[in-house]
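Entry:
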Amino acid sequence: MSERPQRNLSLELVRATEAAALVAARYRDLGKWDSANSAAATAMRLVLQTIDMDGVIVGGEGEKHNTPLLFHGEMVGTGHPPAVDVAVDPIEGSPARALGRPNTLALAALAERWSLWDPGPSVYVEEIVTGSAARAAIDLNLSPAENMRRIAEALQCKVGDLTVFVLDKPRHENLIRELNETGAHVKLNSGGFIVGAMLAAMPGTGVDVMMSIGRASESVLAACAVKALDGGLQIRRAPQSDEEMNRVHAALGKRAGQILTEADVCKSEDVFLAATGITDGGLLHGVEIKRDGVTTESLVMRARSGTMRYVRAIHRLDKLMQFSQIDYTGGNQEKAEDRG
């Protein structure tokens, strides 16, 4: 890359995550679950195209939802330097579930070109994340109980004092049982793979560690956040079907079981990330629609400086709709006007 990014691009990315969150919330309120993801992706893409960058999508919606928007290899931005890899998730999770549960975010991250991990044939990975004080203690080759013991030792506390974030999924039945046996506080969540990683890496959230199996594409965004937060992350491919396992082993052979750290998943030291709350959660407030404006709360981070900013924005959709290409009404202008 001939020119390193010097602008804090997360402050420009946040406009894209805000747009996706606003549209997702509107479609949720209108009950248009099936259309929410494509609408949020369209809104995010329209804003990304206005940012001065030569971006290429390395993790996006095309793989997750089989849509023609924000797919792997798509170019975004104005085409001007800097050249960057871009990872996005307009609605973290399936809209039908994600928009009805807490901790749902719209996210976008970018880093220098060729620096973000390409999951290839992998759909799922197992992941463990903790904060900076315990990042040297985690090891996916060890059992969950042994990891908890090592994390407690690093934090100079008892295992029973630790809180671990786990996705409440059938595939985690054994993990949850083993963690319960350690005496740790198990915080079960219906979704939020990336949120869990961010809460575990960020000080003062009440979450000390995150352990779960989630989508490989989401682990890229998680690694960008963990890198910015100076935390520790490890992932390993975890095929959830025979078909996925065959694809992974055919492509990678013995490397299929390789453990990757945050430095492997995100090789750049100049990483930018923006996240906007769609629904309320432990990290951010969700979109709040009022008669005189719509409020969003976002978190923007830059790894190089270590800076985190919380951005609270009040949006006047009536004014935005006068010049924006984004349909913030969900295709229902009359209903939007009735609500203010």
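The first strand starts at residue 54 and ends at 59.
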